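Morning - cytidine-5'-monophosphate inputs below, output right after.
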Amino acid sequence: MIFTVAIDGPAAAGKGTIARAIAAETGFAHLDTGLLYRAVALRSLAGEDPVTAARGLDPVALDDPRLRRPEVSQEASRISAIPALREALFAVQRGFARREGGAVMDGRDIGTVICPEAEAKLFVTASPEARARRRWEELRAAGLGTSYEATLEEVRARDARDAARAVAPMRPAPDAVVIDTSDLTVAEAVAAALAVVRDRL
Ligand code: C5P
C-alpha cells in the first residue's frame, strides 16, 4: 500500500514525537527529513561544499549525535535555503514518501513540495516559548549546556529564516490539519494526530 503521512511545522513543536507514534501505530516507515539537512550541515561546517555534500549524502550518517548540536541547527537552516541543495535531497525524500508499505515524514515542506498528494497532512506548531522550553530541556538532557534565552533566540531566528526563504518556505499546505501543541500533553497531541490519520486510512 502507498500512503504518506506528511508532518510539517517549526522546530520543537512535537513533529518527531507525533511522527514516531504514528509510525509505531501504523507500521509505516519513518523519516525525519531534518536529519538530511543536518547531515549536510555537519559536512558544510567541516569545510565541504554543501551542494556536493548533499549529492553524496550517506544515509548511514543520520544517527550521528553531533547532528543535534545548536550550531548544526543554524547551519542546516542556512544551507537549506540553497535551491540546488534542496533539489539534491528531493529524490531520496520523494522515493521514501511513495515507498511500498506507507511512510511518515516530518519536516518543513513535505506536504507542500515533497509529496503534495500525501494522503494525510498535518502542520504541527506551538508558541516559540513552548518550543524553546522543550528544546532547551532536550539539550540539557543530552548534556549540551545552553540557556533558555539563547535557545529561544535560536528558535526565533530559525523560524524567521525557514518561513522567509524563497524556495520551499515553511507554511501549512492548504489541506493540512493544524495542531497547536502549546497547551496539549504529548498524549493529547498524539491522539489528535492519530485521529486525522485513521480518518484517511
Ligand atoms: O527539523 P530540524 O530542526 O531537524 O531541521 C533543521 C533545519 O533543516 C530546519 O531549520 C530547516 O531549515 C531545514 N529543513 C528544511 N526542510 C525540511 C526539514 C528541515 O528546510 N523538510
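Note: Residues 11, 33-34, 37-38, 73, 76-77, 80, 107-109, 158, 162 surround cytidine-5'-monophosphate (CB under 6 Å).

O.
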